[in-house]
Write a structure and sequence with these properties.
The structure holds three protein chains of three kinds. By secondary structure, chain A is an alpha/beta fold. Chain A has a single domain, classed as Amidase signature (AS) domain (Amidase signature (AS) enzymes, Alpha-Beta Complex), CATH 3.90.1300.10. Chain A is built from 15 helices and eleven strands. In chain A, strands 1-3-2-4-6-5-10-11-9-7-8 form an eleven-stranded mixed sheet, sandwiched between helices. By secondary structure, chain B is α/β, with parallel strands linked by helices. An eleven-stranded mixed sheet of chain B has the order 1-3-2-4-6-5-10-11-9-7-8, with helices on both faces. Classes of the chains: A alpha/beta, B alpha/beta, C mainly alpha. At the A-C interface, helix 10, helix 11 and helix 12 of A face helix 2 of C.
Chain lengths: 463, 465, 60
């Protein structure tokens, strides 16, 4: 069996000419061939493109012209990212034959950095309807146990990264769609600050909550991928003009001196998490304390107060995007997506405005709560992955998520693995920073991850 | 010499600076005129006599001591009664706010005080800046000084009336769908809706967050520039306050127009909304005057005016209903009928319509920006016709008298000036729109046209009986 | 006041979507959950409370 490499490891080997990008790409293609029939993480494998990209990277390696740490690294894109000349379906019948003319801006950025495009990855339909069994493609399965859910909506990216089919991939996160699958698939994923990464060319779900971001096996890999994704894009009206700092410069400096707030009531009272999740969070806190961080509890509005305006805004904006098709082709959507979006039709303009006013009040609360803190900690997901057939249709209405608050506030939030629970399934912890303080979040995440050693274990793939 | 109350701010301040005019005398003249005439005009909800005299006395002492603060020092200014004044009632012309006394000044109120202005008055408005010229409120509606049987329009009705009638030399208005420019047009004064984000909205009672603008209303464009100079200041507490470099807004006053590219949005008044011939004639005369002054005039096309109306109205309805919903449900009887009906219309806008209106707004902003690459300003009438009788229910008739919404939707600056008079002696109006943050250019064109059309010599005659 | 399934169905019809009775019934069962969330998101605020998104006049 070929070894599982992180991006950082592979790129060091490539730089030292000890690993050929072509060889690495073939390893990934072989794994896809071996496992993806049961994982369903790919909607499309772009083998010819991958080999061409790898060949070009290999030539650069040989001529000493490598572009940087992502050169020759096999990646995949969630299938809501437009790829020029390559089918982009949003996992939906409505776009079954959609072939965009241009790349999304961040797709272009990664290509420029030398990545090898392996294919397009499964998602929930238009990043909201799933896991669904009534679409042209099946939902992705959790590589830790294919009977279980990956979480969504960046489900294919979560599964493919965990299974080593790619070394990294794009996700998008409107209410937790990067951090949920990162948690349930046992990988790392960061939702950056709203405006840090361009959304142009990525199919919209909810304008004011949509974020693009990277997912990878480790926090350091996320930092490398994010570095190549971030930056101002004049074509995205929400794009931030500020310069992007070096995200790995201080990543190895540990947690010493960090002021950490634990939003204990989120995961202990507002939506109590599983024993393994709680254990993982406490473990992370212990590691941080041991490294010299200052830890204290913080109290915010209840989790549901953050979720309500978030979901109302999301459903409303998503409905506005899809309204013409919902009126014409309702039954071409999968049941989960169409039924969820109907709620958006029942919201009045004034109610949407009111939710946006609530949102500002929550942003102010969060800003004040973090005035003398560097990061916050809570859960990423409530528990280990449920069985894929046990996912409730109205989960979002029934229980508040731990991820939505940071879509509402727009601040950066990272999910990473903090242990393994029932049935060996992974659990995740969430680390949240102040706006545009990704470097601090990544530094804290890496500090815990490198102390914890959870990264030594990969899913035991059968078949 | 002109009677003090009919001086422009520019004239008065030049005299004050050289101590040929006393701020106390000027203020006394305005106060006396309010007492004599406002029983017929109803432009004042509150006359701040004692405080105004004290402020004028202080201004006089400061100027005597050589501490002249600028062109507003010692100048009587009125505030539309949605601008908060610390310790002074701010009613929004509504029974709901009858006893409302804010603790703090609006940001712009504070800037006027800092500039040494003498705040004389809290002025009539349409209820919550939306109602209408209503007769079922605790105070009567303001009346048009050119003919008190006519509507001054609104919602900054008191501001326009008071300035036109010489009850104060300048006033603050607010403009969500034309509430500065409409009454400026029908009362024959100059009113500027600046770029969204140029003037702070903090301490103004909100009507529609993304469409609300504060702005100056004066007898001349030149005076609007002087007021704007004191008012344009970044406010970190207003989320919409823009970061900009304040410039000399009077820089273009009196400067030549040669080479200036002027676009006439002809389809607004020739195709989109039927416009009365006298208004069109005044516009054509203004176009001729601009050409005489060396401007290059051409027709330009924007989206049909109805598109702006729809977009602006969907946005305003949703945002204002969000603000008022709680009180509409709990104390509907405290609203006048006009405000209640107009606000209630917000209950029927779906969120999807609101969001699509915002998306269409983005398109309209981009469309205007493209057009404004080919011209420096655009012009079209402010009002389709001169002032109409007060008490007409415009909601029932569906009559839309103004071309104002467009620039609330795009957020770019728009100035209304008086460019002529009807045969019956009523003011006619022209609107000048510019690129974002190019107020100086818009005011330059306004000033040049006021001069060329010779409209500033004629004041309304208000009888005190 | 609880909404009847018929009134709920009419409300859905007004949106312009074409749903089958079975589809309406599934949504009707979850409507209380949605209403609770909507009420939470739209609770009264002070008049001065501003929305989170801000209009910008000079779109770059």
């Amino acid at each position: 069996m070929d070894p599982f490499l992180t991006i950082a490891e592979a790129s060091a080997l490539i730089a030292a000419r000890k690993l050929s990008p072509m060889e690495l790409t073939r390893i990934c293609l072989n794994r896809i061939a071996a496992h993806d029939a049961s994982l369903h993480s790919f909607l499309l494998v772009t083998e010819a493109r991958a080999l061409a990209d790898a060949g070009a990277a290999e030539a650069r390696m040989q001529s000493g012209a490598l572009k940087g740490p992502l050169d020759g690294i096999p990646i995949g894109h969630k299938d809501i990212y437009s790829t020029a000349g390559i089918r982009t379906t949003a996992h939906s019948r409505l776009l079954e034959h959609n072939v965009p003319a241009g790349d999304a801006v961040v797709v272009q950025h990664w290509a420029t950095a030398g990545t090898v495009l392996m294919g397009k990855l499964a998602t929930h339909e238009f990043a909201i309807g799933g896991p669904s069994f009534d679409l042209p493609w099946p939902p992705a399965r959790n590589p830790w146990n294919p009977d279980h859910f990956t979480a969504g909506s960046s489900s294919g990216t979560g599964a493919a990264v965990a299974a080593g089919l790619v070394l990294g991939g794009t996700g998008s996160d409107t209410g937790g769609s990067i951090r949920g699958p990162a948690a349930l698939c046992g990988i790392a994923g960061i939702k950056p600050t709203y405006g840090l990464c361009s959304r142009r060319g990525v199919l919209p779900l909810s304008f004011t909550l949509d974020h693009t971001g990277p997912m990878a096996w480790t926090v350091r890999d996320c930092a490398l991928l994010l570095q190549a994704m971030a930056g101002y894009d004049a074509g995205d009206p929400a794009s931030a003009t500020r310069p992007v700092p070096d995200l790995t410069a201080d990543i190895d400096t540990g947690a010493k001196g960090l002021r950490i707030g634990v939003i204990r009531h989120f995961h202990e009272t507002d939506n109590p998490v599983s024993a393994a999740t709680l254990r993982g969070i406490e473990h992370a806190i212990d590691v941080f304390r041991h490294q010299g961080a200052e830890i204290r509890d913080v109290t915010l509005s209840p989790l549901a107060e953050y979720n309500a305006p978030g979901w109302i805004i999301l459903l409303t904006e998503a409905y506005a995007v899809h309204e013409p098709w919902l009126k014409e082709r309702f039954n071409d959507y999968g049941e989960l997506m169409r039924d969820r979006l109907v709620w958006g039709a029942l919201v009045r303009g004034s109610e949407y405005v009111q939710a946006l006013r609530r949102r500002r009040a929550l942003c102010e609360e969060m800003r004040d709560a973090m005035a003398d803190l560097d990061i916050l900690i809570t859960a990423s997901a409530v528990a280990e992955a449920p069985k894929i057939h046990d996912v409730p249709k109205w989960a979002m209405l029934e229980k508040p998520t731990f991820t939505m608050p940071f879509n509402v506030t727009g601040q950066p939030a990272l999910s990473l693995c903090c242990g393994y629970g029932a049935g060996g399934l992974p659990v995740g912890v969430q680390i949240i920073g102040k706006p545009f303080q990704e470097a601090t979040v990544l530094r804290a995440g890496h500090a815990y991850e490198s102390a914890a050693q959870w990264r030594a274990k990969r899913p035991d793939l059968v078949g | 010499m002109t009677e003090p109350h009919f001086l422009t701010i520019a004239q008065a301040s030049a005299l004050i600076r050289v101590k040929k005019l006393s701020p106390v005398e000027l203020t006394e003249a305005c106060l006396a005129r309010v007492k004599r005439l406002d029983g017929r005009l109803n432009s004042h909800l509150l006359l701040l006599e004692e405080q105004a005299l004290a402020d004028a006395t202080q201004a006089e002492a400061e100027i005597a001591a050589g501490d002249w603060k600028g062109p507003l020092h010692g100048i009587p200014i009125g505030l539309k009664d949605i601008f908060n004044t610390a310790g002074i009632p701010t009613t929004a012309h509504s029974a709901l706010f009858k006893d409302h006394v804010p603790a703090e000044d609006a940001f712009t109120t504070g800037l006027l005080r800092d500039a040494g202005a003498v705040i004389t008055s809290k002025l009539a408005t349409w209820e919550f800046a939306i109602g209408g010229s209503s007769f079922d409120l605790p105070w009567p509606p303001a009346r048009n000084p050119w003919d008190v049987t006519l509507d001054p329009s609104g919602s900054s009705s008191g501001s326009a009336v008071a300035v036109a009638a010489g009850l104060c030399l300048g006033a603050m208005g607010s403009d969500t769908g034309g509430s500065i420019r409409g009454p400026a047009a029908w009362c024959g004064i100059a009113g500027l809706k600046p770029t969204y984000g140029l003037l702070s909205r903090r301490g103004l009672l909100p009507l529609s967050f993304s469409l609300d603008h504060a702005g100056p209303m004066c007898w001349t464009s030149e005076d609007c520039a002087l007021m704007l100079q004191a008012l344009a200041c970044h406010d970190p507490s207003d989320s919409a306050s823009a970061s900009f470099r304040a410039e000399d807004y009077s820089a273009g006053i009196g400067a030549p127009l040669s080479g200036l590219r002027v676009g006439v949005v002809r389809h607004f008044f020739e195709a989109d909304l039927l416009t009365d011939p006298e208004t069109i004639a005044a516009l054509e005369a203004s176009v001729a005057a601009l050409a005489d002054m060396g401007a290059v005039v051409a027709d330009v096309r924007l989206s049909p005016f109805g598109v702006y109306t729809d977009v602006g109205s969907l946005i305003a309805r949703s945002e204002s209903y969000a603000i008022h919903q709680h009180w509409l449900r709990t104390t509907p009887e405290l609203y006048g009928a006009f405000a209640r009906h107009r606000l209630m219309a917000g209950a029927f806008v779906t969120a999807s319509d609101y969001i699509n209106a915002l998306r269409e707004r983005t398109r309209l902003v981009a469309e205007l920006a493209e057009v404004m690459k080919t011209v420096d300003v655009v012009i079209f009438p402010t009002a389709r016709c001169p002032a109409r009788p007060i008490g007409e229910d415009s909601m029932a008739s569906g009559f839309q008298p103004f071309f104002n919404r467009a620039f609330n939707v795009t957020g770019s600056p728009a100035l209304s000036i008086c460019n002529g008079f009807s045969q019956t002696g009523l003011p006619l109006s022209l609107q000048i729109g510019g690129r974002p943050f190019e107020e100086a250019l818009v005011l330059q064109v306004g000033h040049a046209l006021e001069r060329a059309m010779g409209t500033r010599a004629r004041r309304p005659m208000v009888s005190d009986k | 006041m609880p909404l009847s399934p018929e009134a709920f169905g009419r409300m859905l019809d007004q949106t312009g979507l074409s749903l089958t009775d079975a589809q309406k019934s599934v949504l009707f069962d979850a409507y209380p959950l949605f209403q609770a969330m909507l009420a939470r998101a739209t609770a009264p605020l002070p008049r001065e409370a501003e929305p989170a998104t801000v209009f910008v006049a000079d779109i770059r």
